[in-house]
Amino acid sequence: CTPVSVCLKWGRCINLLMFHYINYSNIARMIPLSELEKAQIKDAVFATIEDQTTAKALPARRTYSSRMRYPMAAAVIGLLFLPLFLFVPVKNSSNITEKTGEEETKRIILPDGSSIVLNAHSSIKYSNNFSSDPVREVFLQGNGYFTVKKDSRFRPFKVYANTLAVTVLGTEFNVNTRSPATEIALTSGSVRVDKPGTANRPALLSPGERIVVDSVGRTLSRSTFNPELYAAWLSGNWVFHKTSLEEIMRLVRAYYGKEIVFPKEKYKQLQMTAMIPVGKLQDLIPVINETLGLHI
Question: Residue 248 pLDDT more than 50?
């Protein structure tokens, strides 16, 4: 109670006493009150105070059913932990994509120090968390020459090309997905080539070996090649030593993304020895024509 409310209550009591006193005075002509009358007045005063106090009591506390308590508790807990979620860093699971245009070659250094020479009209995609992922994974479309560095944590390096998965520990190899027959050519180290979803056993390659996967027949075929043919990916020179025209056109398809059609089947067996700087395809074709006496 505040001092003001106390004063108001005692003011009402005094008025009540005056009322009873006047009534008794008028009735008894100022005859002194008996002990019983005094007790009655006292009881009436306290009863009045109690009624006024009860009338101004605080309203009853609002109660909630048990059905409402759980959602309210959950909301309160959520508000308490909300700052934690706001300040906890969210792991970014997005990918990084690199592309090349027509007649464009790009050298890409991955976060682990491995490098990829991405040839014309090709693309790769790898995780934004490449440095922390348990497996180093790269997805290739087109053609790329990989130089893979060994990892201090011995994490495997995988390249996904069409339906193939190439697993590496430390090596150099070329992957070509331009044609329906995907090709893996190993220049150093070792790789394992898997074709998930088929009965083919994983193929282990040695340097100078190439494997071609026929996507139509779903078969694997192995052959050999000269690793120097892929020097253009690193040194910028085509190195041909008794290289068949068929093999040269294979490299042209891999590097430039262009398909060469031979007017006669026997032209494929013609051989050529030369070192030619890598440039535009329009610069390479005249050299081949002049050397072999052809018109491609």
Answer: yes
